[in-house]
């Protein structure tokens, strides 16, 4: 239940004199909501203890949060001597997050609740090289389809995973304009188009970042504080989950390990060029042509294309040349990752990407190289595992990015009194700006066609 | 035929050939004496019967005992109860077709947690992950089926027409993919066509929803129904309304095959291969039980069936001759000939 009148108040400039209720209540509302959301406190007593707020204030704030639909107290906990306490639960169904992953060859869309749990997802083949406008149109069509299937729920945000670093300075703040993440994006305002279509704030993160978040919160990394995530594909990138949160560096360009120069038996080059899926495919083709790999040669003879996936499948059924190609890739990746592990001391290293996920050989070789080159203290309890979430890691992680953003204290305090993130003054300003530009465009008189 | 869709988590499809069992695999399986249980959404449809027959036959070839076959009657509660009962029986593997998403997710997660291999057919409950919660998913290329249906309907629909899409209300991977693919193909290749989408919550509502669609949009000149059983109900409504419009659907059931041969409304069917899918599910189960790495998603291509190829496609799909009525309608047998072919 939203209270629009309060939203208008929240965007008013500060007046002199006694502070308004919304100004004094916001910090405690933010604090209490996040204690409940993170399940650090699940009863009124626990909230009073953690927040150091008085009983009357806690009761008042919980009343406000319940009225805004952000918490509920309908469930009873376990009694410890007296009357069973009422449990204070975060209402994850209060809103929904639309999520998408844009990959080189695929587009994934989904919808998640405010805990970041995916409720529905769909993936389809899609070329990233198509015009951004076509991509945006498809994305909007699929988002509309999902919203219709879900009964048009209240949206709290949109979060998109893209195949490149997203340079932005703001920690958790939603985007005000479309950053030039990929070629052609400077000419099409994707973020603005999504805001116009769905009236919700938008976040963008690199695919490696969202997948790291996904693994950290819902995949093999859940329960760990520090994980190193490595995605092996055409590109090789890494993500770092540090102290339970995503480490974004100075400009959001963390983990571009594919450009690290390395030397291998075949010469020297970047890690991507020497161990990525293009290299695996090329080595596979060469092995088939010179007759070193009977399985790949047979596949080629029947007119089949050899990609890294075929090499991985051939290795899986015991083709010696294919095994050597993947082992070599795994060793080179392992060497670079070991350096990172020595620096960062992660509890877990997750290898992802279709090749790493479907193939034990690359994983085994990488593992051997990592354990062999790590300091004994670093490798003592270190686990190296393959991801089991596939592309879903990107969608789940994107949802977590938006949820963390929406509920980060710096943003939450500016919308909480209205009960919906759309009331954030910066979002309102962005919408006004989009509307102004739209009006200006309508007034431009096009010159007659020559 | 290439697989055009992606898996429920964006996986690339693996071909059924990836899990072919060699004679030595079968010998190893026979020596181990595995026990497997099968939990299906229904045992009443032609599709389910064929799938079961392919699966049980292949499991038999591998010496695997099928200890139970459960009919869930499309009911999540029945499926949850069946899975919990089977977990207590401790088979080596359970092959299940999840009848819902979120509702049956926890029960399916309990199977893998109990150390029993779980092989899924057609649908993955929300939040379950391959390798962790289940071994593999085996399904048709449902995206491809939707695309075939759109391609086949397109030539029968005039420029600027309105086309109805009858989808399934439940959140189900297979039917979602078919609907998305049909709509996508039409938007790209027939932008002149206006699409009107309605969804039925259960089979019993298919006729009512069809009637509502035609009441609201009487000028609809083509119809896609996401599978064959509801399409029969839709065809009934069209007959009652005295409307003859081209219709396409998915699954080559007996009645649908007759409808296709009769050259009435039904102009094409995008057919799954349930018998082959059953055999593939059995191969995946045995491969997993032998400790081999199995693909996350094995997909079988669909077939485009029209009146011209319905007889041979029926044989491919059902491994038996086409119904007598179909053969007669297509003048492949003389009407006076005594009935000798089983239907």
Task: Provide a short characterization of the protein structure.
Chain A is of the alpha/beta class and 450 residues long.
Structure description:
The complex is a heterodimer of chains A (450) and B (343). Chain A contains 18 helices and 14 strands. Chain A is α/β, with parallel strands linked by helices and 450 residues long. In chain A, the strands form 4 sheets. A 5-stranded mixed β-sheet of chain A has the order 5-4-3-6-7, with helices on both faces. A 5-stranded mixed β-sheet of chain A has the order 10-9-8-13-14, with helices on both faces. In chain A, strand 9 and strand 10 form a beta hairpin. In chain B, helix 7 packs across helix 8. Chain B has 12 helices and 12 strands. Chain B is globular, with a radius of gyration of 21 Å. The interface between A and B is medium-sized, with 31 and 29 residues.
Task: Chart the SSEs and their pairings.
The complex is a heterodimer of chains A (450) and B (343).
Chain A: H1 4-10, H2 21-37, H3 44-51, H4 55-67, E1 71-76, E2 86-90, E3 96-102, E4 106-112, E5 118-125, H5 132-149, E6 155-162, H6 190-198, E7 202-206, H7 207-217, E8 227-232, E9 236-242, E10 245-246, E11 261-264, E12 267-270, H8 271-275, H9 277-289, H10 294-301, H11 308-316, H12 320-344, E13 348-352, H13 354-358, H14 360-373, H15 376-379, E14 383-386, H16 392-406, H17 409-412, H18 425-443
Parallel strand pairs in A: 3-6, 6-7, 8-13, 13-14
Antiparallel strand pairs in A: 1-2, 3-4, 4-5, 8-9, 9-10, 11-12
Chain B: H1 23-32, E1 35-40, H2 46-61, E2 65-71, H3 76-89, E3 93-96, H4 102-113, E4 117-121, E5 136-140, H5 142-153, E6 162-168, H6 173-189, E7 194-200, H7 206-216, E8 220-225, H8 228-240, E9 247-250, H9 254-261, E10 266-271, H10 274-289, E11 297-300, E12 303-305, H11 310-318, H12 324-329
Parallel strand pairs in B: 1-2, 1-3, 3-4, 4-5, 5-11, 6-7, 6-8, 8-9, 9-10
Antiparallel strand pairs in B: 10-12
Helix pairs in contact in B: 2-10, 3-4, 5-6, 7-8
